[in-house]
Amino acid sequence: MPPSSFPHQPTQAQLNLAALAGSSSPRTIRSLRKIQSHQILSSKPSMSGLPSQPSTARSSAGPDELSQPQAQLDSPVRLRMHRRTRSNSDASSRDPPAIATQRRPGRKTGSGFGIKRSVLESLLRDGPQQGNIQEGLQELRYLILSTRVEADADGMSTYRVYLWLVLLDIPPVSTDEYLSLIHQGRSPAYTKIRNDTFRTMATDPLFKRRVTEASLIRLLNAVAWKLHDAKNRTRLKPRPSLSSRRREMEQLINTPPSIMEEPDPRQSTPSTTGSYITTDSAIYVQGMNVLCAPFLYAARSEVEAFALFHSFITRECPGYIRGAMDGVHRGLRLVDRCLEIVEPKLAAYLFSKGLQAELYAFPSVLTLCACTPPLPEVLHLWDFLFAYGPHLNILCIVAQLIRMRDTLLESPSPNKILRSFPPLDAKEIIALTVLIVRKIPEPVYAELIEHAK
């Protein structure tokens, strides 16, 4: 495979958006963005109605961006349905004339000749007016919240992956870099990865139809090597010769998980939680396969999914992949605290039954709710989380509990209900999360921002 970047290169305007934080520390910029997002989401609603199209000349003052968030979210989502006329040649001669000209919804691609782009896609492709990157990012977040990303019934969108790359500030990755990690062969966490991948979204036909287990193994193994090498730069494994690359790639996919590799002196040791750790961090923990799955589903190539997944877990939630998963446990404690603030009666009832979040919300925290189907709704929820901060996933979990409130309070055994959350409804969960944000005290919100670090 020749060296290349992503198969579909972002436009210059997209790269300008991605370079927003170029002159400052990435973590500082992300922290400021998340704090600003809190101010935006917690701003008081105005009495004006939702404009039919967002202005592209708004000032850069953040709180004005969502002057009426609840009104935006209460309005029905009206996705454009691009249609084409049915050909008369396939119409029955016995049908009345009206049937011959019946129009049916075409495949929603969002681009191409004769298809009108959405405002969100146009902004992403063309960039902000007058090159104002900060205003462009505010506009993107506004449109994600108010109109959603256009996608077909399977949740597929032609531009979602580029939107995620911009929002997470991730530059293109060379295909050669990804291939070099694959050519390193089996990582120390390979056996653990193979024991998890076949279970990844096993009952989701959409995921199984688009993503193969082989691609999931390759990506997770490459990320494991990337994390391993980052912690052992002075003792890197020698790269294999060109003649052995094909054999190692075949072994990577075909070796049964029951065959254990010989211990490597650089290999991390398994912890009591089943994670492989070097010093204080893991190169793979159980659950990373589910967290990785939506990236592979939405991306147009494994290289894009690799760039997104690796950058996300190392920059946004490194505490989730440490050996002790301390970031996940802090998030679970925050679920209990936030539920107690927002719905004290429900929290007291669950606590009286011995139901802390540690017992039922661990998968939802670790995977950003990707463990709860359907997958298209997960993608819409992630659009919101990447725009305003992944830390809001904690409040999205609280929102799901509030939506189950009556059922939980009426049940003598709420633990049975909490074993499986109801199907995701991204629009309703986001709307409720926006309301919850306003009730969270500033000190607790600051903990939300930092809990995954």
Automatic annotation (TrEMBL):
<dbReference type="GO" id="GO:0005096">
    <property type="term" value="F:GTPase activator activity"/>
</dbReference>
<dbReference type="Pfam" id="PF00566">
    <property type="entry name" value="RabGAP-TBC"/>
</dbReference>
<dbReference type="GO" id="GO:0031030">
    <property type="term" value="P:negative regulation of septation initiation signaling"/>
</dbReference>
<feature type="compositionally biased region" description="Polar residues">
    <location>
        <begin position="37"/>
        <end position="59"/>
    </location>
</feature>
<dbReference type="InterPro" id="IPR000195">
    <property type="entry name" value="Rab-GAP-TBC_dom"/>
</dbReference>
<protein>
    <recommendedName>
        <fullName>Rab-GAP TBC domain-containing protein</fullName>
    </recommendedName>
</protein>
<feature type="region of interest" description="Disordered">
    <location>
        <begin position="33"/>
        <end position="113"/>
    </location>
</feature>
<dbReference type="GO" id="GO:0044732">
    <property type="term" value="C:mitotic spindle pole body"/>
</dbReference>
<dbReference type="InterPro" id="IPR035969">
    <property type="entry name" value="Rab-GAP_TBC_sf"/>
</dbReference>
<feature type="domain" description="Rab-GAP TBC">
    <location>
        <begin position="154"/>
        <end position="389"/>
    </location>
</feature>
